[in-house]
Amino acid sequence: MKRFQQFLTFALALTLCAFCFASCGGSKGNYTASNTEYFIGATGPLTGDVSSYGISVQNGAQLAIDEINANGGLNGTLFHFEMKDDQGGEEAAANGYTALYEAGMQLSIGSVTSGSCASFADHAKDDGILFITPSASAANVIAISDNAFRVCFGDPQQGTLSAETLSARYAKIGVIYDTSDPYSSGLYEAFDAKMVELGKVKDTDYIVRTFDKDSNKDFSTQVAALADAGCETIYLPIYYTEAGLIAKAAAAQGYDVPIFGNDGLDGVAAQLSSDVTASVEYITPFDVNATDEITSAFVSAYKAKYNTTPDQFAADGYDAVMILFAAMQKAGVSDVTLSASAMADLIRPVLTSADFSYTGLTGANMTWSKDGSCNKDAKIVKVQ
Amino acid sequence: MSTLINGLCLGGIFALIALGYTMVYGIAKMLNFAHGDIIMIGAYAIITTLSLSGNTIAAIIAAIIICTVLGILTERLAYRPLRGASPLAVLITAIGVSYLLQSIAQLIYGAQSIPVSIGSFGAVSVFGLSIPISSLITLALCVIIMTALTLFITKTKVGIAMLAVSEDRAAAQLMGVNVNMIITLTFAIGSALAAFASTFYLMQIPSATPTLGSMPGIKAFTASVIGGIGSIPGAMIGGILLGIIEKFALSIPALAPYTTAIEFSLLIIILLVKPTGILGKKRREKV
Amino acid sequence: MVIKMANSKTSEKKNNHLKYYFNYLLVGVFFLIFFILDMTMGLRTSTTQLLTKIAYSIILATSLNMIVGFLGELSLGHAGFMCVGAYIGCFCANFLHTVIPSPLIVLIIAMMIGGLVAALFGFLIGLPTLRLKGDYLAIATLAFGEIVRTIFKNLSAFGGAQGLPTKRYDKSLYIIAFLIVFITLFVIQNLKRSKHGRAIEAIRDNEIAARAMGINITYYKLIVFIIAAGFAGIAGVIYGHLVTPVANTFFSFNYSIEILVMVVLGGMGSITGSIIASTLLTFINVQLTTQLSGDMAALKYLIYALILIAMVLWNNAPALSNVREKVSLHHLLAWFNGKFSSKKPEKDSQTAVENAVYLKEEADWKKIPTKIPMDSILSTDIKPDRTTEADKPEKSSKQ
Prior knowledge:
The complex is a heterotrimer of chains A (384), B (287) and C (399). Chain A has 2 domains: 38-153 and 291-376, Response regulator (Rossmann fold, 3-Layer(aba) Sandwich); 155-284, Response regulator (Rossmann fold). In chain A, 46% of the residues lie in helices and 17% in strands. Chain A is built from 12 helices and 14 strands. Chain A has helices at residues 2-23, 51-70, 90-102, 114-127, 139-143, 155-169, 182-197, 220-229, 240-252, 293-306, 312-331, 340-352, and strands at residues 38-44, 79-85, 107-111, 131-133, 148-150, 173-178, 206-211, 233-236, 259-261, 280-284, 358-360, 363-368, 374-375, 379-382. Chain A has a 6-stranded mixed β-sheet, sandwiched between helices. Chain B is mainly alpha-helical. Chain B has 11 helices and 4 strands. Chain B has helices at 2-28, 35-53, 56-79, 87-109, 133-155, 157-167, 169-174, 179-204, 214-227, 232-251, 259-273, and strands spanning 114-115, 123-126, 129-132, 207-208. Chain B has a two-stranded antiparallel ribbon. Chain B has a two-stranded antiparallel sheet with strand order 2-3. Chain B is globular and about 60 Å long. Helix content of chain C is 74%, strand content 0%. Chain C has helices spanning 2-7, 9-41, 45-71, 78-96, 103-129, 134-154, 173-193, 195-205, 207-212, 217-242, 253-266, 271-291, 299-316, 321-327, 329-340, 345-365, 374-377. The N and C termini of chain C lie far apart (55 Å). Classes of the chains: A alpha/beta (384), B mainly alpha (287), C mainly alpha (399). Chains B and C meet through α4, α5, α6, α7 and α9 of B and α6, α9, α11, α13 and α17 of C.
């Protein structure tokens, strides 16, 4: 062990030297001075449990960047996109943010998951950088500063809408949600509040069961409880991986009631097997099977590049970049070395102005409020 | 009642994983943190062969072969060079191997969960309750494997050599036992058990992700400690107990979010009452 | 030079003295370099973030080393204590911010509260579980960590799954964090050198003999557990002031393992080792996260795992001991001496190598036995195990 310490001391001394060099220089804040391309940054989970979301957003955003660059960029200046891995965690998101900011990031599409996006936003506020998150739906993400926007629906919007839709259709609703996930619990809270407002009683009009994604992947008990209570539908304010498992668990018990969910369910179709006969519907801004020109072009380009079907995260990522691009065009950005806060001051008025709207994969004529939320119509997509 | 049956089904899987854990621990005396990830590799092996051949039996056999080879390989490359070093050093390489397997799986298969349907066997109806046949097979297989392992260890020559290695490695070596061979064999058996576990895991939870093995691994470890680590029937009892507790906790809405806490509290309580687990034998300390 | 010192007894004493101050010196120099850089030309935020992270990693690793290397018990729940400290401390800080205007005072009070509450948890969990041994204690502490995390995850007062929003401290957090590192070192090193420290080491080396000597085993075990938990709690508060929101996922059992990796790589029982290993691993980890972006990110764990395995194999594999010997610092020094000393180069190098071997044997002799029963069992070499012979536990039962 003694020897090892010496070896380590050596290694440490070496890294220390490297580290010293890396840590000084350019420390006074002007990181964008040497930019030759517009730099859009983001963090997202690229490894770990939720990495599929991060990878989808990255792929979608990169596709948008490629498309912009292929068309000559903004007045001939190209774009550069980089996503750092945050593993869905707050600390890594903060590290990723600073690394990006110091590498010259001018605009951002924030973070993919709600928890790390809250951390990201807290740092972004200090530096005055503008971001538009594709998928972080928690309320606190955009509340933190004026420069925080999002593409997807917020949790309160969707939960309320689900409560309205479902209570109009069914007398008894079963709910299964994930207590360990901010997205899922945020949706459920909004749903629950709306149900109470509608005069429904928990445990009689709607039955709630929970799980913890970290440790439970076997849903037989929860499904059996809803079946015993005679629920006419299952509302799943969760992500598609677990939703697929729940659908299969229900099918295995011969409990074929309609399944209803939110945008997190997008992608569930690939998770279902032939023995699932129940209908699956969800509220989503994006429908991979839509036949409009922009969607079909995106889907075929995505398939060609990444060899999988895009999900809603990929579409959100694509749109987020395209929205920034459109706003930059409209704001008449011409200086590639513009600092992040100056860029934000140019873009923010454009994004929130009444005459700016964007039609993309995840909605037509999207506009943005001052608080950062996106106004667009939801559509209900039926998988089967 | 249906909760009990669901608990038995889940418990069967925990028990299968715990058998592998306890086997490796009992003989090689190391906590193989990569065991859960071998299960994950087994699951991907099943998915790949299933999509190539479409034959479930072939897929299971392929998984067993791949897992066994992988178990032997990791033992050879990562653990054997450390024989004689501090056990904590071995623990860390095991963690390293666990990370390594997870990232390799992500590089090959991506992070997205891959759905799979291994021909489910349907369900039988007993007294108005439907019991999935796959769960019955899991439980039956558990009992069979448990008996077979016990017989193997107590009756065959190799098994007795294993016992000897577990009792006193140096003495066993002096008695002419090839310690390295025995430990490799232990890993091979443990990994083959992991392949069975991945089969039944996929029947119950039909999708695979690179991190699929870590939580079941921890829970199976817990189960084997509850049952008394190193004891083969103990692993089975611990696994089934844990499965039932988990399902009962989940069936009560107020307790459901705290399921993990309840399971681990059970572990602590059992350890406090019986510090060596349910079937573990007391170890006397000599001066 | 170093080699010759080890030969004479007086200089060995001096060496011990140096060893005692060496840790302060190490951390002090490291800190001062960056502090001066910060004062003169300013540090980037990423550097101060990394420094803070290194500081709390050192606190965590040295305090866990107290349990693992010093007391000889394996704990896998260190992140649990950190979790308690982070949640409770930051919860109080959120309240205090409304009363006290100075963030520094709030931070100090929060650290005290977080540390104390974590220490209290250390007491509560230690009292019943410390009678367990070896792997059983390890799994019990692991269970404790997960229980704590699950409870905080579901308490809406602490933000539930969304995490507890906190107020970040400014860039100078690293200065305070390094001050805490000094306090940690001071407490741990002084405890180690005191009468109590010797009692604790006696418990590690042979619990039964220690008990026979009239050492109150439960008392000392609890003391170590409480102090280590308290420092982990303080590290948690520092974390909560670096990152917002404080969410439960960070404190999972994987993080406990990560801290243990730092301790084991640095050498159990060696505080210097813990400091260096935690600095190095934190640095590697952050660099891998921030340098690899996009599709390369998936390689992060691959590289990290390979580094980990390679490091452990290199340092511990018995088969590699010859190679290690050849490239060791002593050997290089000896070679260096031989090359450049004017008189009798060959003989000099000869003695130097002998000394190096002597040192190695001495290091073996000092190898720290732990209470983990596999320790003594695992040695396949037929040589009698000099240090653990006395308390070799009876082997586990038949299957």
